[in-house]
Automatic annotation (TrEMBL):
<dbReference type="Pfam" id="PF13439">
    <property type="entry name" value="Glyco_transf_4"/>
</dbReference>
<protein>
    <submittedName>
        <fullName>Glycosyltransferase family 4 protein</fullName>
    </submittedName>
</protein>
<dbReference type="InterPro" id="IPR028098">
    <property type="entry name" value="Glyco_trans_4-like_N"/>
</dbReference>
<feature type="domain" description="Glycosyltransferase subfamily 4-like N-terminal">
    <location>
        <begin position="105"/>
        <end position="235"/>
    </location>
</feature>
Length: 425
């Protein structure tokens, strides 16, 4: 007989972006391991990105519970839709570029909505789910964040009903990079820390997506912590013809601080020094790109070589991954980003296209790329190595031999990862 579990998540189709796919895929495969998932989501969410193509991936027989949510982004959007939408996507303008309205929004978001702007969904959800859990005799619940306010739902249901509670962290809480930009007061910082500690020490099981986050959380709690990364799923796109140009593609958002001037300089010099490279090269930016990134690209005279595609559906982004010659993975060079493993990395590694990654030393991403033999990882001072590697790939492109020889990918398949989850349940 299948075991019922309740999954509490904010992101669900038609939401777009990486946050939705983790639990959409777990829900897809859990029934194969004798687990019956029931999904609880907001009835009227304010999703910053929409991808209707993901709706078709929801299993037909899954029970989905919905309850209304009251979000401040809707009110703020009535005042300044552009600023609200940008901030809700996680693209926070540089301090010197912030308008008065954006500064006020960030202060209010950071200090009046702790842990986040979805906090108003906590109490109504506790009341609604308490009755449902008791009626359906559900013994295990899972909360996934961000938004980390959903863990407060799990905290209360654990206390009220004594259910087994698994808290899943797709990103860290108080050490995530954007916390520094929220204009938090000392009291607000302390409140975040206290809530984080309470959640980590009350959940029966904690799941994280990286070993760096596991090490961080082990300094706060003695509760069991398991690393279950994101992953890749079966190919829904099929064979795609490669670009005729030497294309470098970055899939996903390029935030204000995710701006690798070392890369723009390398590309600019290769263009100046190599006429055939200049003729063949194209940079595809697939996703939201901040203004200062575009300004940096222009500063290095690359504007005529870019295709700023913007946000597209997940299915279309996979096509870009498969047809591009090289795939770019760029992370901010900071201590806080060592634990970030973008969901796209796992689709990158099965695309048969070499990865060129830039990020901090000691990153989980570096370890995965090396272990799977799917590309090269550079620090922000590896100028010569980065330049020579891109030229090496360009020569392989000219010789029609540009590809990867990956190893050990199966453990990152969504079904294998779901099996690990089912053992915890």
């Amino acid at each position: 007989m299948s075991k019922k579990i309740l999954i509490i998540t904010y992101y669900w189709p038609p939401a777009g972006g990486p946050g939705v796919q983790r639990w959409l895929k777990f829900v897809k495969y859990l029934p194969e391991f004798d687990v019956e998932p029931i999904v609880y989501i907001p009835e009227n969410p304010s999703y910053p990105l929409i991808d209707k193509s993901l709706i078709s991936e929801i299993p037909d027989n899954i029970i989905i519970l919905k309850h209304p949510i009251n979000e401040p982004y809707k009110f703020a959007g009535a005042l300044s839709n552009k600023s609200t939408n940008t901030i809700s996507k996680g693209i926070i303008p540089e301090k010197k570029r912030q308008s008065f309205f954006e500064k006020v929004m960030l202060y209010i978001r950071g200090n009046f909505f702790i842990p986040d702007a979805r906090k108003n969904w906590v109490k109504p959800s506790i009341n609604y789910l308490s009755e449902y859990i008791s009626k359906e005799n559900i013994k295990t619940i899972i909360t996934t964040g961000p938004p980390h306010s959903l863990h407060l739902i799990g905290l209360s249901l654990k206390d009220k009903l004594g259910v087994k509670w698994i808290a899943d962290f797709r990103d860290p809480w108080t050490t995530i990079g954007y916390h520094k930009q929220l204009k938090l007061t000392k009291a607000s910082k302390c409140k975040h820390k206290a809530l984080e500690k309470q959640v980590l020490n009350t959940a029966d099981q904690v799941i994280v997506t990286s070993s760096v986050t596991k090490n961080e959380f082990q300094q706060i709690t003695n509760q069991p912590i398991e690393v279950i990364t994101n992953g890749y799923d079966n190919d829904l796109v099929g064979k795609i013809e490669q670009d005729s140009k030497f294309t470098l593609a970055h899939i996903g958002s390029l935030l204000s601080k995710r701006n690798p001037e070392i890369l723009w300089q390398v590309l600019s010099e290769n263009i100046q020094e190599n006429e055939s490279f200049a003729h063949d090269f194209q940079l595809n930016l697939v996703g939201a790109v901040s203004e200062n990134v575009l300004e940096s690209i222009n500063k290095y005279n690359l504007s005529n070589y870019i295709d700023n595609v913007g946000y597209i559906s997940h299915k279309e982004s996979v096509k870009f991954q498969k047809k591009s010659q090289l795939l770019l993975l760029i992370e901010i060079d900071s201590e806080e980003t060592k634990c970030i493993i973008p969901g796209k990395l796992f689709e990158y590694i099965v695309s048969n296209r070499p990865i060129v990654a830039l990020g901090p030393k000691g990153s989980d991403v570096e370890n995965i790329i090396k272990e799977t033999n799917t590309g090269d990882y550079f620090y922000y001072n590896d100028y010569k190595s980065l330049k020579s590697t891109i030229l090496m790939h360009y020569k392989a492109f000219q010789n029609k031999t540009l590809k990867t020889q990956p190893i050990g990918l199966q453990k990152y398949h969504r079904k294998s990862l779901t099996e690990s989850l089912s053992k915890l349940i």
